[in-house]
Design brief:
Chain B: Keywords: Kinase, Phosphoprotein, Transferase. Chain B: Residues 91-143, 219-271 form the PAC domain. Chain B: It catalyses: ATP + protein L-histidine = ADP + protein N-phospho-L-histidine. The complex is a heterodimer. Chain A has a single domain (6-121), classed as 3-Layer(aba) Sandwich (Rossmann fold), CATH 3.40.50. Helix content of chain A is 41%, strand content 18%. Chain A has helices at 14-27, 39-47, 68-76, 95-103, 116-128; strands at 6-10, 32-36, 56-59, 85-90, 108-111. A five-stranded parallel sheet of chain A has the order 2-1-3-4-5, sandwiched between helices. In chain A, helix 3 (68-76) links the parallel strand 3 (56-59) and strand 4. Chain B is of the alpha+beta class. Chain B has four domains: 3-131, Beta-Lactamase (2-Layer Sandwich), CATH 3.30.450.20; 155-258, PAS domain (Beta-Lactamase), CATH 3.30.450; 266-347, Signal transduction histidine kinase, dimerisation/phosphotransfer (DHp) domain (Helix Hairpins, Orthogonal Bundle), CATH 1.10.287; 351-515, Histidine kinase-like ATPase, C-terminal domain (Heat Shock Protein 90, 2-Layer Sandwich). The longest helix of chain B is centred in the middle third of the chain and has 51 residues, at 260-310. Chain B starts with a helix and ends in a 5-residue tail after the last strand. The chains are: A alpha/beta, B alpha+beta.
């Protein structure tokens, strides 16, 4: 893992992007956090040659064009992301979707919390732990 | 031959004659009596006594007509029998006779004329057998058979018919007439194929059933059959092979029940069930997406209020998030309103009237007047037809499609609306359950941002957005609502698009009565 932690949040909701970034910066201002508006955009970014693989990717489930599960499937095909820890990040956790994403290699399924403190706590835990 | 020998022979003949007489006298199973030329009883045996109950003393010298019934005298039966025996040598007859006690027996009678050397009739021998038991058994069988035939003939609920080995109708009952409409005169002698639809005949179904019955003993089938008047009924059919004693098939019985009512009820039930299943899955989807999409603005409202509380002193920050909070609340109420609209559409059958689509379009244009001006949009249309439908729902349909075109545009929106009449067969991708007939196709074409081909069907799903929220607002309900409205009108909606070049929405509404 590189010294500077890199993180990508894929979410079509600008508010949710903002809240997420706010929490990450609040936890550790040194984390390099990028955003993508949807799966197609993210795959284009991650697949480009010059792009360094992030350490963490958070994927919203309900997105236009390419949904989170499809996006996860595509990410799994990109070799340089083999060590990247991937988390699903959605308003609701439908059992079917949770199982599907875990089968596809997502480490966890995070329900978007109501309180920012909750999200911060979850992210702190993720950033401090190593791969399970 | 010597004299002694002759005498011996005569004695032998006399002894033989005696023996013969004794034999006749002792016979019990046959009444054997001798009549004189005029029919008076000369001789009586044990069989006669047993059958007719008179003793020899009682009966000798009586006329043989004593055994006959009163009705036999009307046509002079005893005399006619004697006459026939006299003329032809023998007369046979079977009939009811009377015993001494008045009871009856079924007699089989043979009267034989007795001649002298000159061939003159000198009397008659009358042999009678009591066949009452056989007669009664025969009668019972005949009555039972008659009753059985009557029963089949009068059965109303089943068509019970007899077919020859090659399927020719030989017998017809009341049920067959009631179910199939033919009288027995019309149908007997014709092939049973006549009850089958032309498709089934082409497939060889009637012969297939006969050969199955021939091989397996029985063939069972359910299917549409044709009545005399051409109407169809759902028949449940059993064809059974009939065999003779040596096991050869000599024909078939065919029992048909008219299960049309049950079939219709079953089909209706299946239809209801399918509809319920669709509604159920729609409801499930509805509940899931509703909870998801409603959760979103709610969660944001709480998060934003948290942020504001934490940064209460930073007026600029607080104002920014108060605005966002406000937007989320607006979005929430928009969602609730659209969802309500959608669920109302799912629930109610609309009132149907004649709707002038030109008027509908005029109203929608008026609603969007400001937006059209602001976006410098043009809406061009050919004269539109009148259709059978619900004015309010069709208004909503037009409003959603036009608002979509206005919303998803980069330059000045240019919308054209035209219509034409098409056949069901011309509609590509039409769902299977779309009924045959003529449809009015209304096309909405725009020069907007379009969409990629693979989203052609997806865009009509509830809460399916193709465009990120940062660029285009929307609840994800609009096109789902359009689909619902068109389906409520027994129509079909589809779309085609090309990214960056625009989209066309095709709305097909049936021209026939909607009822």
């Amino acid at each position: 893992m590189s010294e500077v932690k890199r993180c990508l949040i894929i979410d079509d909701d600008p508010d949710d992007q903002e809240i997420f970034m706010m929490c990450v910066k609040n936890l550790d201002n040194s984390i390099d956090c990028k955003t993508s508006g949807d799966g197609v955009e993210a795959i284009a970014l991650l697949g480009s040659d010059g792009e360094v693989a992030p350490d963490y990717i958070f994927i919203d489930v309900n997105m236009p064009r390419m949904n989170g599960i499809e996006c996860l499937t595509e990410i799994r095909k990109i070799e340089k992301l083999n060590d990247t820890r991937i988390f699903m990040y959605s308003t609701t956790a439908e059992e079917k979707r949770v199982n599907e994403s875990k089968k596809l290699g997502a480490e966890d399924f995070i329900v978007k919390p109501i309180r920012m403190s909750e999200l911060k706590e979850k992210l702190r835990h993720i950033f401090q732990s190593s791969v399970e | 031959m010597g004299v002694g020998e002759n005498r011996l022979e005569l004695r032998s003949i006399a002894t033989q004659g005696n023996l013969y007489r004794r034999m006749i006298e002792e016979i019990q199973d046959y009444a054997i009596i001798v009549l004189d030329k005029n029919g008076f009883i000369q001789n009586w045996n044990k069989g006669a006594e047993k059958i007719k109950q008179y003793s020899e003393q009682e009966i000798i010298g009586k006329h043989f007509s004593i055994f006959y019934l009163p009705e036999d005298f009307k046509d002079n039966l005893p005399q006619r029998l004697l006459k026939r025996a006299e003329d032809t040598g023998v007369a046979s007859q079977e009939g009811w006779r009377k015993r001494k006690d008045g009871s009856r027996f079924w007699g089989s009678i043979t009267i034989t004329a007795i001649h002298d050397e000159n061939k003159n009739v000198i009397g008659f021998c009358k042999v009678t057998r009591d066949l009452t038991d056989r007669k009664e058994a025969e009668d019972n069988l005949r009555i039972s058979e008659e009753r059985y035939h009557q029963m089949i003939a009068e059965v109303q609920d089943y068509a019970i018919i007899l077919l020859s080995v090659d399927g020719v109708i030989e017998n017809w009952n009341a049920g067959a007439e009631k179910i199939k409409g033919y009288s027995s005169e019309e149908i007997i002698g014709r092939s049973f194929q006549i009850f089958y639809t032309s498709e089934d005949r082409e497939k060889g179904l009637p012969w297939h059933l006969l050969s199955t019955a021939k091989e397996a003993g029985r063939a069972v089938h359910e299917g549409w059959r044709v009545r005399k008047n051409g109407s169809k009924f759902w028949g449940s059919i059993t064809i059974t092979a009939l065999h003779n004693k040596s096991g050869t098939v000599i024909g078939f019985s065919k029992v048909t029940r008219d299960l049309t009512q049950q079939k219709i009820a079953e089909e209706k039930l299946a239809e209801y069930t399918a509809e319920l299943e669709i509604q159920n899955s729609e409801l499930e989807q509805f509940a899931y997406v509703a909870s998801h999409d409603l959760q979103e603005p709610l969660r944001k409202i709480q998060t934003f209020s948290d942020l504001i509380k934490e940064n209460f002193d930073d007026r600029e920050f607080a104002e920014k998030y108060l605005n966002k909070l406000d937007l989320s609340a607006k979005r929430m109420s928009e969602l609730v309103r659209s969802l309500l609209n959608y669920s109302r559409l799912s629930k109610d059958k609309p009132d149907v009237t004649e709707v002038d689509l030109n008027a509908v379009l005029r109203e929608v244009k008026l609603d969007f007047e400001l937006l059209i001006e602001e976006k410098r949009a043009t809406i061009a249309n050919e004269p539109l037809p009148k259709v059978q439908g619900n004015h309010m729902q069709l208004g909503q349909l037009f409003s959603n499609l036009i608002s979509n075109s206005l919303k998803f545009s980069k330059e000045a929106p240019c919308i054209t609306i035209d219509s034409k009449i098409v056949e069901r067969s011309q509609i590509t991708n039409a769902p299977k359950n779309l009924t045959n007939g003529v449809y009015c196709l209304i096309q909405f074409k725009d020069n907007g941002i379009g969409f990629e081909k693979q989203y052609r069907d997806k865009i009509f799903s509830l809460f399916q957005r193709l465009h990120g929220k940062q660029h285009y607002a929307g609840t994800g309900i609009g096109l789902a609502l359009c689909k619902k409205i068109v389906e409520n009108h027994n129509g079909f909606i589809s779309a085609e698009g090309e990214l960056g070049k625009g989209a066309v929405f095709y709305v097909y509404l049936p021209v026939v009565d909607l009822r």
